[in-house]
Task: structure prediction
Amino acid sequence: MKTYLFDFDGTLVDSMPAYGAMMLGILQEEKATYGADILRIITPLGYTLTAEYFIKHCGVKRSRDDLINTMEKRAKEAYATTIPAKPHVPQVLHALKAQCCSLNVLTASPHTMLDPCLQRLGLTDLFDHAWSCEDFGMSKSDTKIYQAVAARLGCATKDVIFLDDNLGADTAAKAAGMTVYGVFDASSQDDAERIKAVTDRYICDFLELLS
Result:
């Protein structure tokens, strides 16, 4: 039985356009300073660490809690109503479940975004666990979170197949000892070659998991 650990944003669901627009909108409203790689940096962090990053590195003057509230308010409606699954994801998840694979989620998004979206898409019952980084108090750029996930799954890190479209998360999961599959997403296509270099496999379509 294979054990899969899926990222959510940009891997299972096509949320990155909405996420990127939201985060850049906040930075622009605050007249913040940021580089072209800002989305790659903050994507694995979750809202709390992203808010702290905005304050520390981008010059945003608002409080951390105020920033988090703004992020959650703007994102909550999109996750609950409009963000779609990526192509072939439901089909492939059902097929893997039929093969008795263990399916799990680890995302930087909070449960207020993750849970309603999975429920609306009819995917909730396919997963043994759907974790947010907030469940561990760590980000996906920290190798320890992957060790903690493996411990909760009751297996070695090497026995978990982790899938993510983000270079930082893929790098950390590989350093923690997981088998890592890079996933194509338009938001991270500039990192595609670097992702391929650090992962065991790179997929452009979820159907490839069935081959």
User: Anything to note?
Assistant: The longest helix spans residues 64-81. The longest strand covers residues 102-107.
